[in-house]
Every structure is written in structure tokens, then in C-alpha cells.
């Protein structure tokens, strides 16, 4: 999923240069790193890894099978974003793939319809509400996400279709592996709020962390999804789906 994301961030740092002919000079340096995995920082900016493990528990203490759809992210510093990132969400077999997508602010997401029938992608999530209208096989419609937050994405034709797009204002986020283990690389030292989000847990886990220069390991967070109940969302007009929602065959 993250491999489909083409994005970058720029850190600007102005530092004094040695005086030359009595005039102070300043030069601006920047470091760009891409979220696709190629990471490069200004050598003067120390950064380290933040790692840990997420557990999502279902009823009777059963461990959730889809931990890798959780999102771990750090809130705090906001670097200056560069480039215009793009990401893709495929619509295939009446499902959004990926179902959970994390993108930096400014990302244009392409919703590609691979099904041989129409879909209508929309969201009522403020401040990123949108409606791409009805479009058919082979067509792609796009939406640019400029505000941080969680965007719940649905289809106005198929009530069971849903996706989640988390829009973040910094690059320090990741999704755990199937075992819940995660690592966020290249985190500059400082104070952050660690968030752990999962679609079936109503209250996002948040807590303050202090990242030292050497990084932070062994973080452990357990989310309780045992109280989750599936509820049919409304259509784009805020009404029930005419097809009867849950009765539609999938
Ligand atoms: Cu649809």
C-alpha cells in the first residue's frame, strides 16, 4: 500500500555561516525524504526509530486478525511538505483496496473502478466531505485531501462498501505487521502524542511520549474492540439505502 504512495517532505533549516568580509551569511539547507522507504535527513538532524507492538482484542479476549489495518502515528511536529503526493484506491469486487489508507496532507487519491458496474464514491466526513458521482468500469476519479483527520469513504450504490483515509500532517506514521509489531523510522527527538487507531475501536488510544536521540522501543498498546457492533451507515443524503443495506448480497 505504501509502495503506491509517491510523496516527500522537506525540512528547512537556516543556520549561520562563518562571517565573510564582515557580512553574516545564512544558508538554507533542506532534506527530503520519501515515504516509500527512501529516507534521507539533513545530517545535523538527529532522528531515531520509535517501535512497539499493537494488540487489538475482540470479544472474549480473542486477538483480532486484522491488526495490520491499525494505524500508529505521532502528533507533534509538522514539517513542510513538498511535492504533490498521489495514492491509489482500487474499487474491485465491491470493495475498496486498500480499505485503510494513510496519506500526508495534500495527497491526491485516485479511486479506480475495476468493477463492470457503477460506483458512487462519497464521504460525509467534515472537513473533507466529497462526492465523486456515479462512474463506471475503467474510470478513475480523484480527490485531493488537504485537511488532517479521518475520512470515512462510502459508495452510494453499495451500502457495505467502506474505506478509511487518515490524512496526517507529518510523515511519522505506519501500520503494524500481522503480529502487531511496528516501527516508525527517522523520528526527530522531542515530545509527541502517540496515537493508535483501529476502525473497530471507537476511542483512539493516545498518550504522550518523549523520543530521545537514541529512539524509543518496546512500546505496547492494547486496543479493546470487544464492544464493536456493525451499524449500517447512511447514504450520501443521510437516508437509509433503498437496497436495504445489510440485506444486499456480497
Ligand atoms: Cu459501489
Task: Supply the key terms.
18 strands; globular; 250 residues; binds copper (II) ion; Immunoglobulin-like; five-stranded mixed beta sheet; six-stranded mixed beta sheet
Word description of this protein:
There is one protein chain. With 250 residues, this protein is an all-beta fold. The radius of gyration is 21 Å and the shape is globular. The strands form four sheets. Strands 1, 2, 5, 6, 8 and 11 form a six-stranded mixed beta sheet that branches. A five-stranded mixed beta sheet has the order 7-13-12-9-10, with no helix packed on it. A four-stranded antiparallel beta sheet has the order 14-4-16-17, with no helix packed on it. The protein folds into two domains: 104 residues, Immunoglobulins (Immunoglobulin-like); 87 residues, Cupredoxins -  blue copper proteins (Immunoglobulin-like). The chain has no helices and 18 strands. The N terminus is likely disordered. The structure holds copper (II) ion.
Largest sheet: 6 strands, mixed
**Topology as a string of helices (H) and strands (E):** EEEEEEEEEEEEEEEEEE
The class by helix and strand makeup works out as mainly beta
Tally of separate helices: 0
Strand composition percent? over 45%
Ligands bound, unique: copper (II) ion
Helix content: under 10%
Radius of gyration from the CA trace? Answer: 21 Å
Mean pLDDT: 83
How many individual domains?
Answer: 2
Low-confidence stretches: 1-44
Amino acid at each position: 500500500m505504501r509502495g503506491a504512495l509517491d510523496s516527500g517532505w522537506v525540512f528547512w533549516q537556516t543556520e549561520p555561516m562563518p562571517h565573510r568580509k564582515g557580512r553574516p551569511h545564512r544558508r538554507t539547507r533542506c532534506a527530503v525524504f520519501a515515504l516509500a522507504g527512501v529516507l534521507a535527513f539533513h545530517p545535523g538532524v538527529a532522528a531515531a526509530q520509535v517501535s512497539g507492538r499493537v494488540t487489538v482484542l475482540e470479544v472474549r479476549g480473542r486477538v483480532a486478525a486484522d491488526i495490520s489495518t491499525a494505524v500508529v502515528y505521532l502528533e507533534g511536529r509538522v514539517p513542510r511538505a513538498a511535492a504533490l503526493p498521489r495514492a491509489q484506491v482500487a474499487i474491485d469486487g465491491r470493495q475498496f483496496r486498500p480499505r485503510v489508507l494513510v496519506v500526508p496532507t495534500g495527497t491526491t487519491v485516485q479511486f479506480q473502478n475495476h468493477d463492470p458496474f457503477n460506483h458512487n464514491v462519497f464521504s460525509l466526513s467534515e472537513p473533507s466531505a466529497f462526492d465523486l458521482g456515479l462512474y463506471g468500469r475503467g474510470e478513475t476519479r480523484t480527490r485531493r485531501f488537504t485537511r488532517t483527520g479521518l475520512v470515512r469513504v462510502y459508495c452510494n450504490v453499495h451500502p457495505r462498501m467502506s474505506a478509511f483515509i487518515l490524512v496526517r500532517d507529518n510523515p511519522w506514521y505506519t501500520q503494524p505487521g500481522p503480529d502487531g509489531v511496528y516501527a516508525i523510522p527517522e523520528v526527530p527527538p522531542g515530545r509527541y502524542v502517540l496515537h493508535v487507531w483501529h476502525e473497530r475501536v471507537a476511542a483512539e488510544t493516545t498518550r504522550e511520549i518523549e523520543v530521545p536521540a537514541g529512539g524509543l522501543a518496546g512500546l505496547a498498546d492494547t486496543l479493546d474492540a470487544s464492544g464493536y457492533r456493525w451499524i449500517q451507515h447512511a447514504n450520501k443524503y443521510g437516508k437509509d439505502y433503498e437496497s436495504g443495506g445489510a440485506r444486499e448480497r456480497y
